Amino acid sequence: MIIMGIDPGVAITGYGIVKYENNKFTVLDYGVIETQAGIALPVRLHTLGTELSKLLACYKPDAFAVEELFFNTNTKTAIMVAQGRGVVLYEAMKFGLPVHEYTPLQVKVAVTGYGRADKSQMQQMVKIILNLDSIPKPDDAADALAISICHTHSGTGHYKVK
Q1: β-sheet bridge partners, residue 33
Q2: 3-class SS of residue 101
Q3: Most CB atoms within 10 A, among 60, 104, 115, 157?
Q4: Considering only CA atoms, which of 140, 136, 41 is closest in space to residue 83?
Q5: Under 8 Å CB-to-CB from 87, ≥6 apart: which residues?
Q6: Which CATH number is 101's domain given?
Q7: Distance of alpha carbon 20 from alpha carbon 148, whole angstroms
Q8: % of the chain surpassing 70 pLDDT
Q9: Is 22 exposed, middle or buried (CB count within 10 Å of its CB: 0-12, 13-18, 19+)?
Q10: Pairing label, strands 63-67, 2-7
C-alpha cells in the first residue's frame, strides 16, 4: 500500500509518501510544496493544487492521510490553513482516493506512543520507524511522514469518490 501523508498549509504544505508492505516501510518521497508570500491567495492555492496533483499522478497512492486542522488562538492563520487544507482534500477526492483524517494527538500516539511528545521526539521516531539516516527536513515534511505512519497504525472515517 502506498500512503501519502499531508501536513497542510498555504505557505508550506508538507508531504510524505511511503510504501507499507509486510510490516515494513519504504520511503518513496518527502518534501514540501511552498507558495510565495505576497502573491494573491487564489494564485497560491492554485499553485498548491497543481503541485499536489503532480505528486498524486506520479505516485498514485492507495490512501491519503491528512492532519486535521488544529485551531489555537490565531484566527487568521487558522483560516489560511483551512483554505490550503480544502485544496488538499479537493485534490485527493479528484483522484478518487480514500481520505483519512487524523488529529495531532492521534499522530503523536501512533508514532511515539505518547500524546504529549515534543517535536524532537516525533522526529526521532519518524527517523527510526522509517529507517532513515537522518531526521527528515524540513519539519513539515517530517510531520507529513508521521501522518503516513499514523495511517498504518490506525483508521478513522474516510470518504471516497465512487
Answers
A1: 13
A2: strand
A3: 104
A4: 41
A5: 45, 48, 49, 52
A6: 3.30.420.10
A7: 10
A8: 93
A9: exposed
A10: parallel
- Beta strand residue intervals within the chain, DSSP E: 2-7, 12-21, 24-34, 63-67, 99-102, 158-159
Phi/psi region, residue 60 (left: phi>0; alpha: psi -120 to 50; beta: rest), is left
C-alpha cell at 114: 505518547
- Domain total in the chain: 1
Q: Check residue 118 and give its pLDDT.
A: 96
> Which pLDDT band holds residue 153 (cuts at 50, 70, 90)?
confident
Instruction: Kindly calculate the radius of gyration of the chain based on its CA atoms and give it in whole angstroms.
Output: 15
- pLDDT tens-digit readout, 111-150: 999 999 999 999 999 999 999 999 999 999 999 999 999 9
Q: Which domain holds residue 85?
A: 2-159
